[in-house]
Amino acid sequence: MVQLGLVGLGKMGFNMRERLRAAGHEVVGYDRNQEVSDSTSLEDLVGKLSGPRIVWIMVPAGEPTRQTVAELGHLLSEGDLVIDGGNSKFTDDKLNADLLASHGVGYLDCGVSGGVWGKDNGYGLMVGGAASDVQRAMPIFDALRPEGPREEGFSHAGSVGAGHYAKMIHNGIEYGIMQAYAEGFELLEAAKTVDDVPAVIKGWQRGTVVRSWLLDLLVLALDEDPELDDLEGYVEDSGEGRWTLEEAVNHAVPAPVLSAALFARFSSRQKDSAAMRAVAALRNQFGGHAVKKAGS
Fold first, then answer.
1. DSSP label at residue 234
2. How many whole angstroms separate alpha carbon 241 and alpha carbon 264?
3. What is the C-alpha separation between 288 and 266, in angstroms, rounded?
4. What digits encode the pLDDT tens for the residues 117-156?
5. Cβ distance 53 to 80 under 8 Å?
6. Distance between CA atoms of 279 and 218, rounded to whole angstroms?
7. Mind listing the domains of the chain with CATH numbers?
8. Which residues are catalytic?
9. In DSSP terms, which residues pair with 82 in a beta bridge?
């Protein structure tokens, strides 16, 4: 049994707390929403943990994460460990690690994939940081990852920053796959040659080379709304796709699929389309991301 402090109990953090507890670990959570929180403040959370402490952060990327890391730096003690499991940009990780190192506190960055389904299915984990810190936190990673061989749901990607870098590329790939499914859906709808589009897409789930979990989620969305008419084809991007494309430019790596998928999201904010309704539905299915209802 491992004791863990968990900061941020939103869609992901709340389910992660439940999965860790189900595995027998002790989790003390903190969230500004006191209805779900186990502590009243970060200071209270740290005070409830026995040293050496491990604190996992699941708050929005950017300034909220940086502020949380800075506050924990003053509250934690030498030998403690912080894990950032949010979607921070990889360039923030060295800054966070250096700040905590000045207090004698270790740091790991962990890219987490699995969305709202992770509580039951487990989370894909990509970790950056020192091997000794990774080994120390391994009981936590093993509880969160899917059942089966560790290497199929967990990777120690490299030094600090590598975990979030790997997750960034993962999300760039995700953009392209979702866009391909969405464009196929729109073409099937537009041609009128196929009478039952949802049936065709459902029929791809077994035996075809395009089967995947994202396809399964598209089928779920179509079961609920066969023409996706209840959604507006407006799709946000949370940052990772842009960062991945920036890296492609920086390293002169051609990324036409990713760039097209990202720009398609931009176009979705100007004009509604069946393809972008499909992307919106997929993001809502796997990650619980907010969607706009048609006519709202």
1. -
2. 12
3. 20
4. 999 999 999 999 999 999 999 999 999 999 999 999 999 9
5. yes
6. 9
7. 3-159 (3.40.50.720), 167-287 (1.10.1040.10)
8. 167, 174
9. 55, 107
Note if the pTM is more than 0.85: yes
Contact 168, 90 (CB under 8 A): yes
Q: What is the Cα–Cα distance from 14 to 49, expressed in whole angstroms?
A: 18
pLDDT digits (tens, 9 = 90+) for 155-183: 999 999 999 999 999 999 999 999 999 99
Q: Measuring CA to CA, which residue among 216, 181, 228, 219 is closest to residue 199?
A: 219
* Amino acid (1-letter code) at residue 192: K
Q: Compute CA distances 179 → 188, 242, 275, 280, whole Å.
A: 14, 15, 8, 10
Phi, psi torsion values for 187, nearest 5 degrees: -65, -40
pLDDT in tens, 262-289: 888 887 776 667 787 888 899 888 888 7
- Find how far residue 95's CA is from the centre of its chain: 21
Residue with tokens 């006519």: 295
